[in-house]
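S1.2 Input.
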Amino acid sequence: MLETLGILFLGLILLVGFFAIRFYLRVKSVVNDAASISTLVDILPPFQCILDESGRENWQGLDELGKNEALLEKSGFENHGYFTSYAGDALIEVALWNHPLKGIVVAFMEASGEDIETTGLISDVFVRFDDDTQLTINNGPDANILPRPEHSPLIHVSSSVLQDLFAALKTHVPPGKKIRPIKRVKTFYQRCFEQYSAWLWQEPQLRSPQVKAIANKVGVDLTDDIIAELREHARVENVDAISQSIVDGFARQTSMSVAKWAKVCDRLVVVHENMGANDVADCFYDLVDDIDENFEATLDALENKGEDFDALALFHTLARDHTVIDTLSRVASVRQPLRAEIYLAPSV
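S1.3 Output.
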């Protein structure tokens, strides 16, 4: 029984099982398409983990889910919500459970969609240790299809019995490791997903045998040029993800009314210190309706600026141009998680 595990482990489930489901579904949907970099981009994990609140009624395998949840509830686990994520046309249902005393977190996942056979119930058990290393036990399809960082190994168990996953976890917990409990399960789940994705999109992982095998499966030759395109895609996605996180943080703190926020939220433009020169130029195109020809030439020249510069300082310098200085409307400045400023674009 689960209660015999004591406080030895902490489980969260996520990461690899979630990625494995995404990979399984995406390969099925694109393997017959023409090979292109967009195909590979669609298969590899995204940079953000979207978890929309949902309910048990969306699950197809309710009987199996209910049986496993009853076992967890009897053993002192608490439910932390039901969520829906997305992989192309497929839906991924996610249920998160946590034991508040033992520090064990369990996630169940099920993927389904039109013309897609359901994957059945996938279970993950994840533990985080006090040195920030992690261990994942997973029973999903293609669980080891992607490379893994050394600090977060994956053990695959070919069993649908939840107790077997916990037995494997107990066996593989390194001697002397102490479990660090997780309180905000959904937030941690998303952060782990996004940290892993950021690691996977770095050049060493993109050149790994696992990613090369995936590329070969969908007919993409991982040349140096393709790697460079993938890295640029990763950079742009990271810049956009940071901008979104800054807007999300601002939304939580702003005193704007709901009505006013609804009017301005889609017009917010973020300038932050992790931007490249072209990203800074794009901010001006978003903020200024009619760019002067001379100023446009200045923005175009940023393509050759290189990487050694302060993005905010560059923005401020350009913002002093007489053709734009009176059109910029700054809404807020932030310093966490990094230096950034939020501006309001003209209404359409």
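S1.4 Remarks. The first strand starts at residue 52 and ends at 53.
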